[in-house]
Amino acid sequence: MIRLASKHKWLGSLITCAILVTPVVNADEESEKEGLRIATERKESDRGWDNSLADMSMILRNAQGQESERRMRVKTLEVQEDGDKALTIFDSPRDVSGTAFLSFSHSKEPDEQWIYLPALKRVKRIASQNKSGPFMGSEFAFEDMTSFEVDKFTYDFLRDDTYQGDEVYVISQVPQDDYSGYSKQIVWIDKEHYRVRKVEFFDKKGDLLKTLEFEDYTLFDDEFWRPLKSFMYNVQTQKSTELITHELEFDAGLEDTDFDENSLRRAR
């Protein structure tokens, strides 16, 4: 009996050890991997457009609903193996006419941004620590005016969901830049085309700061989806900014030389 008990004890210890060394699927690792997959597919599904030119309106609304409109042109250039370049030129009203904003997005390095102020007749570089500031008095921050790059964030898959009748993935993305004004973003991405439908921005305290919704997605050149309306709402101040695209042209003949510091001064 003593030997039998010892044998059973030995077998029990062996089974316990086997359980301890058996690989366990880490739920956190799986959700991070899935979040990264979705973000990567989002980026890969929108490649090859090369360059574009858009005629847009920016509508600013205060908490009381009073609004003002600005007209602008946005030139963009796709950069392989790095972030995209963009030049925004304001045409009206008179107090902002001639103001130009140049942005170089990067996938692994800090973004570079400059703004030309015609009243001062000089180009001002936007410091990295100021990227969370408002862009031209809007609810968009300077960091919102850069292209999405996968390496800028870490990811976590949260759930499957529906948004306005479409099946979507919901993921969390955390900025890797210490100067970002956000602690995290929650992103709704449709499963069919990997288009962003909605984003929630959380401030450094972890509180909901803004929501961004994309509407009127339109397919250009039978390949590239673009939202004709983007609505950013600040839940803390009740202010909002709407971007409306009136015209959009791809393959507009833009080149790298159209996106440099000199282009800010000569932007018309």
Element layout with pairings:
Layout: H1 2-21, H2 27-44, E1 51-61, E2 67-77, E3 85-92, E4 100-104, E5 112-117, E6 122-125, E7 153-163, E8 166-175, E9 184-190, E10 196-202, E11 208-220, E12 224-234, E13 240-250, H3 261-265
Antiparallel strand pairs: 1-2, 1-13, 2-3, 3-4, 4-5, 5-6, 7-8, 8-9, 9-10, 10-11, 11-12, 12-13
Organism: Alteromonas ponticola
Protein name: Outer membrane lipoprotein-sorting protein
Pfam family, one: LolA_like
Overview of this protein structure:
The chain has 268 residues and is α+β, with helices and mostly antiparallel strands. It has one domain (50-265): outer membrane lipoprotein receptor (LolB), chain A (Clam). The protein has three helices and 13 strands, in the order ααβββββββββββββα. Strands 6-5-4-3-2-1-13-12-11-10-9-8-7 form a 13-stranded antiparallel β-sheet. The longest helix is centred in the first third of the chain and has 20 residues, at 2-21. It is globular and about 55 Å long.
Structural class: alpha+beta
Q: Tally the structural domains.
A: 1
Distinct helical segment count: 3
N-to-C SSE string, H for helix and E for strand: HHEEEEEEEEEEEEEH
CATH domain topology? outer membrane lipoprotein receptor (LolB), chain A
Would you state the CATH class?
Answer: Mainly Beta
Protein name: Outer membrane lipoprotein-sorting protein
Signal peptide: 1-27
Organism: Alteromonas ponticola
Domain Uncharacterized protein TP-0789: 84-266
